[in-house]
Amino acid sequence: MKYISPFILFAFISFQKLHAQAVVPNYEFRGVWVASVENIDWPSKKDLSVADQKAEFIHLLDMHQRNGMNVMVVQIRPAADALYASKVEPWSEYLTGTQGVAPSPYYDPLEFMITETHKRGMEFHAWLNPYRAVFNLTKSSIASNHLTKTHPEWFLVYGDKKYFNPGLPEVREHTAKVVKDLVSRYDIDGIHMDDYFYPYRITGKEFPDEKDFEKYGNGLNKEDWRRSNCDSIILLIHNIIGNINPRIKFGISPFGVWRNKEKDPMGSDTKAGQTNYDDLYADILLWLQKGWIDYVVPQLYWERGFKVADYDVLLDWWNKHTYGRQLYIGQAIYRAGSNAAWKSPDELPKQIQELRSYPTTQGSVYFSSKSFERNPNGWADSLRNNYYRYPALVPPMPWIDNSVPSQPLVEKQANNLIKLVYKGDKKIKEFAVLTLTLNTEEKFALTQIVQLVVADKTAVVDLSKIPDTKDKRIFVVAVDLNNNISPMVEVK
Fold first, then answer.
1. Cα torsion through 317, 320, 325, 327, rounded to 10
2. CB 299 within 8 A of CB 195
3. 64 lies in some domain
4. Is residue 434 within 8 Å of residue 451, measured between CB atoms?
5. Residue 476's domain spans which residues?
6. Residue 394 belongs to some domain of the structure
7. Is-contact 51 476, C-beta < 8 A?
8. What CA–CA distance (Å, rounded) separates 437 from 432?
9. What is the DSSP letter of 333?
């Protein structure tokens, strides 16, 4: 097990106490996956105008902000292509319909999305697919400068797709170059990868990397060699982020089962047909133990009581294997109506209640954005009016930054207005307005965040418009870029 310093352990336990005591958690990761591949979420079509692309994304942001979300996880590299002005890969076909063709009139979608997301006080996590290169061999648009054309020796065909060969050093170097470019040029808050490492097995077909194993295996068996290839790219990305912009978080969203118990005593009491460790060659626990990733979002897309992979069983298992890193749960809002369990309006709310009962779970990420448009089973309403009825801050990570910003100054003005002024050295992104029940000890852990005001220096707040203030005191704090808060100052 990775050694955790007493300071970090204390900070982590203190954070969990804060998380547990608020009516609605003051710290909670509330994310939404926005998939670009096959135009699942955004853009909704390949031939949208630039104006319509922008309008669609703003609509998504406003909808998710109303529902209480605070993180957008947007797929910007679906298949060795880019929904941004990349220096190393062509424009994605999911933007314009033809790979390699830039938006016209020209704009950088990633820069636009980051700016609009930050305007709303939300985080932007850039979602990359590490190894998929051609989504469909018969349908996908492939540009002349796509890597499958310029470096065909880097790729392997498996099923109807083409993949980077994870066993090649050149592939790892290229993926590292992509990440380095992103974290150097864009004001993103996180780098995010999903479950597609080695591809899911196709019955009767072996992934065709035997020659590369013979060349690079170095005495390992093939399974350990494949895992070592995935370990290598994760460590490389971890180091690149740390060297260039260490405030950027690195997260992985793996398939929901690490290993079945029948294969490994450490595994979960499940009977999954494929697993991260044995089939996708992604040893998530190692990455957590080594501190190579900052958060993990296992995709627990099954219902409570599902015999093969029970949500409750897996939630408990992942909570026992976080190794001091943060755990959020991948929630399957898209499954609404798919079977008897998912037809029940209680399924998702009970999953949220269950995950909140664990002090080692810090939030959720929902797949996917478009599911919220139809408000399935009334779940968007349930989040907005109940579970996410108050805003929350993204949980801070003390191993990245544990210093706090200065306390804001408060200037009282006419008509129940106050002006908040921040003069500290650390950059801030917003002020949080808190309420505290009368005759209660002045501790952040006992407050409730009721309003977030995006600002970097000053803001004016109308105290008469702050919700739920009857018989309560009102405080404010400054919130820095890494979600650390200043000491509280009372304003009413």
1. 40
2. yes
3. yes
4. no
5. 409-490
6. no
7. no
8. 17
9. G
The arrangement of strands across the sheet holding 409-412 comes to 409-412, 417-421, 458-462
386-415 confidence digits (pLDDT tens): 999 999 999 999 999 999 999 999 999 999
What is the H or E stretch that residue 459 is in? Answer: strand 458-462
**In this model, does residue 17 exceed pLDDT 90?**
no
Are the C-beta atoms of residues 326 and 397 closer than 8 Å to each other?
Answer: yes
Do 289 and 200 lie in a common domain?
A: yes
- pLDDT (mean) for 237-258: 98
How many separate domains does the chain show? 2
Tell me, yes or no, whether 257 lies in a domain. yes
Tell whether 376 and 414 lie within a shared domain. no
Distance, in Å, from the CA atom of 292 to the CA atom of 193, rounded to the nearest integer, reads 13
∠ at Cα 327 (329, 314), nearest 5°? 55
The pLDDT of residue 2 is: 34
Output the pLDDT for position 87: 87
Counting Cβ atoms within 10 Å, is residue 204 exposed (0-12), middle (13-18) or buried (19+)?
exposed
> In the chain, what is the straight-line distance between the N-terminal and C-terminal CA atoms, in Å?
47
Q: Does 232 lie in the same domain as 120?
A: yes
Alpha-carbon span 113 to 382, nearest angstrom: 27
Question: What proportion of the chain, given as a percentage, has pLDDT over 90?
Answer: 95
| pLDDT at site 22 | 52
Place of tokens 């106490």: 17
Query: Following DSSP, what letter does each residue of 360-388 receive, concatenated?
Result: TEEEEEES-GGGGGG-GGGHHHHIIIIIT
What is the average per-residue pLDDT within 446-463? 98
User: Of 2, 6, 27, which Cα lies nearest the Cα of 16?
Assistant: 27
Question: Quick one: pLDDT band at residue 3, thresholds 50, 70, 90?
Answer: very low
CA distance 233 to 382: 40
Residues 236 and 261 sit within 8 Å (Cβ to Cβ): no
- The first and second tokens of residue 340, run together, are 């008897």
Same domain, 380 and 418: no
Provide the Cα torsion 57, 59, 60, 66; round to 10°: 150
pLDDT of 11: 40
**Which residues, 6 or more positions from 80, have their beta carbon under 8 angstroms from its beta carbon?**
89, 132, 133, 134, 146, 147, 148, 164
Inform me whether the pLDDT recorded for 195 exceeds 80: yes
Spatial distance between the Cα atoms of 175 and 236, rounded to a whole number of angstroms: 9
CATH number reported for the structural domain that contains residue 467 in this entry: 2.60.40
Domain of residue 263, CATH code: 3.20.20.80
Nearest to 276 by CA among 205, 332, 201: 201
Split at pLDDT 50, 70, 90, the class of 23 is confident
Report residue 113: phi and psi, to 5°. Answer: -65, -40
